[in-house]
């Protein structure tokens, strides 16, 4: 055994050298592919896909060559022939990995949901920082990094919040029942015009929506550019403007009123009725 091992040392050394060479070639090829895709102005996720596939192909060929040198009886054809039922078992065992791998490729190939987009999916909301062949890294709005399996993003509906720069937002504003509704509508519309973050070309909507328990409600809608200012900040400015305008016009924004009715205790009513009977 020792003599056979010594005889195999040159082949093992050559196979190790091939592995090192494969590692070097994979790095060089990955850098080359990155330069080519950068010049072609390809999306960041496609750059990662091309780089990963180049590395994978180089490592597969390098590993096969190293195994052929280290084990003379080894041939790629024998590997594929010997898989048989084993490939089926491996497929079942690594079903989730293969599913995420394929989902990652398809996510990178499609045009939507790129690196840098803000998304919502299954209770997760945040910015896409990285897409790999198995998982996607999403930085949530509160700062936490969430690693999401690609199959989840591929099989479930995904809201891409930054697909368009302009997004619509809305609030409900209630006024008291004794208010002149036309005047209130004009006051709210003028208040919206004072907010610079609102897109004036898309216009605004102020509609009387319903009779509520203690107010007549107006539905107020507007469009704003999410790339310039956060939606939450724009909404805050709208609320400040409408509240100030309604207060200045003397229009009340009512709060819910509750009327409580108190009944006399049953024992007190019975005693009172008994006294009336005796008096009669």
UniProtKB/TrEMBL annotation:
Broad class of the protein's primary localization: membrane
Annotated ranges, domain Mechanosensitive ion channel MscS C-terminal: 170-253
Membrane topology, as annotated: Multi-pass membrane protein
Mechanosensitive ion channel MscS domain ranges (all copies): 96-159
Subcellular location: Cell inner membrane; Cell membrane
InterPro entries to which the protein is assigned, alphabetical: LSM_dom_sf, MS_channel_C, MscS_archaea/bacteria_type, MscS_beta-dom_sf, MscS_channel_2nd, MscS_channel_C_sf, MscS_channel_TM-2
Listed transmembrane segments: 12-30, 53-74, 80-109
Keywords for this protein: Cell inner membrane, Cell membrane, Ion channel, Ion transport, Membrane, Transmembrane, Transmembrane helix, Transport
PANTHER family per record: SMALL-CONDUCTANCE MECHANOSENSITIVE CHANNEL
Family the entry assigns: Belongs to the MscS (TC 1.A.23) family.
Subunit structure: Homoheptamer.
Primary role: Mechanosensitive channel that participates in the regulation of osmotic pressure changes within the cell, opening in response to stretch forces in the membrane lipid bilayer, without the need for other proteins. Contributes to normal resistance to hypoosmotic shock. Forms an ion channel of 1.0 nanosiemens conductance with a slight preference for anions.
Protein's name in the database: Small-conductance mechanosensitive channel
Phylogenetic placement of the source organism: Bacteria, Pseudomonadati, Pseudomonadota, Alphaproteobacteria, Sphingomonadales
């Amino acid at each position: 055994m020792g003599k056979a091992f010594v005889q195999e040392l040159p082949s093992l050394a050559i196979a190790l050298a091939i592995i090192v060479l494969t590692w070097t070639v994979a790095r060089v090829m990955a850098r080359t592919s990155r330069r080519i895709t950068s010049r072609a102005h390809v999306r960041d996720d496609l750059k990662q896909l091309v780089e990963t596939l180049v590395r994978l192909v180089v490592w597969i060929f390098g590993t096969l060559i190293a195994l052929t040198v280290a084990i003379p009886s080894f041939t790629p054809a024998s590997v594929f022939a010997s898989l048989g039922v084993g490939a089926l078992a491996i497929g079942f065992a690594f079903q989730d990995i293969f599913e995420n791998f394929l989902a990652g490729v398809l996510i990178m190939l499609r045009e939507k949901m790129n690196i840098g987009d803000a998304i919502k999916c299954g209770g997760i909301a945040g910015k896409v920082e990285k897409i790999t062949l198995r998982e996607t890294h999403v930085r949530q709005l509160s700062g936490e990094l969430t690693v999401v399996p690609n199959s989840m993003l591929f099989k479930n509906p995904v809201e891409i919040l930054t697909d368009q720069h302009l997004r619509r937002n809305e609030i409900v504003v209630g006024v008291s029942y004794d208010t002149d509704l036309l005047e209130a509508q004009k006051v709210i519309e003028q208040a919206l015009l004072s907010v610079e973050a609102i897109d004036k070309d898309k216009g605004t909507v102020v509609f009387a929506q319903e009779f509520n328990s203690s107010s007549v409600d107006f539905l107020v809608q507007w469009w704003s550019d999410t790339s310039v200012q956060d939606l939450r900040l724009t909404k805050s400015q709208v609320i400040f403007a409408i509240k100030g305008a309604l207060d200045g016009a003397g229009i009340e924004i009512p709060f819910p009123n509750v009327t409580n009715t108190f009944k006399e205790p049953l024992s007190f009513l019975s005693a009172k009725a008994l006294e009336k009977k005796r008096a009669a």
